[in-house]
Specification:
Helix content is 40%, strand content 15%. It is an alpha/beta fold and 252 residues long. Bound molecules: 2-phosphoglycolic acid. Residues 9, 169, 174-175, 212-215, 233-237 line the site of 2-phosphoglycolic acid.
């Protein structure tokens, strides 16, 4: 049994003070539901991590960054290193999110170097992969996703199955309200799991695989019920306490 990971992705939303008030309320509400069946993560803007980390207390919430530099330190204006995220209080980091690939031209080789950087600093990378609508319509979805996966993980060494997680996020489902069917998501994640067996034979069965792309309280139960969906990467529905709590409740 893999403990599901319910991971919010706030993207570039909420100011640091709004985030702090939100988290205080959220932690208070969490105590009212039974959450012990899931791990809870918020991937927040880097500017928020240090102050949010201070108010986590004994709560089960963990924090992650949304991106990191491939470099460890130096003259890279505007960049944020893995050690900075770690020191601020993050334990996870998203790598290769489709918005980074689309708006910042990140390719699979750079994503690979960022995964290595995350591991050097003991951060758990959540590698995001997914095909565009036209790639799916042309029947290339699996081929595209496997190329992203293999290049990003090339040469990466994992000691434990929790050293990395993979999020399958079809680009056409992100922020569109158009979710992949649970069957289609399961199909892709089982292909991913099989491929991971070649890369990490002893760990693949337990590496957490997430689905992302318009997950919400209405569809989360069906998605999270699938064998190879061990959690969700949730954008829009992670911004409201109620919808995130409802998704956490559905993860059993
Ligand atoms: P969404 O975003 O849930 O708003 O579709 C998911 C993501 O981009 O990680």
């Amino acid at each position: 049994m893999i403990t599901p990971l319910i991971a919010g992705n706030w993207k570039m939303q909420k100011s640091p003070s709004e985030a702090l008030a939100w988290l205080e309320g959220f932690i208070g509400d969490l105590t009212k539901i039974n959450y012990s069946h899931a791990d809870i993560l918020l991937n927040v803007p880097a500017t928020h991590i240090a102050s949010l980390a201070k108010c986590l207390g004994e709560s089960p919430v963990t924090l992650g960054g949304q991106d990191l530099s491939e470099h460890d330190e130096g003259a890279f204006t505007g960049e944020i290193s893995g050690s900075m995220l770690r020191d601020a209080g993050a334990t996870f980091v998203l790598v290769g999110h489709s918005e980074r690939r689309q708006y910042h031209h990140e390719n699979d080789e750079l994503v690979n170097r960022k995964i290595q950087a995350a591991r050097r600093h003991d951060l758990v990378p959540i590698l995001c992969v997914g095909e565009t609508k036209s790639q799916r319509d042309e029947g290339h979805a699996i081929q595209v996703v496997l190329k992203q996966l293999r290049t990003a993980l090339n040469g990466v060494e994992l000691r434990h199955h929790d050293d990395c997680a993979i999020a399958y996020e079809p680009v056409w489902a992100i922020g569109t309200g158009q979710t992949a069917t649970a069957t289609d998501a399961q199909e892709m994640l089982s292909v991913i799991r099989n491929d991971l067996k070649g890369l990490f034979p002893d760990l693949a069965d337990k590496i957490r695989l997430l689905y992302g792309g318009s997950m919400n309280p209405e569809n989360s139960h069906e998605l999270l019920d699938m064998d190879d969906i061990n959690g969700g990467l949730i954008g829009g529905s992670s911004l409201e306490q109620e919808s995130l709590l409802a998704i956490i409740r559905s993860a059993r």
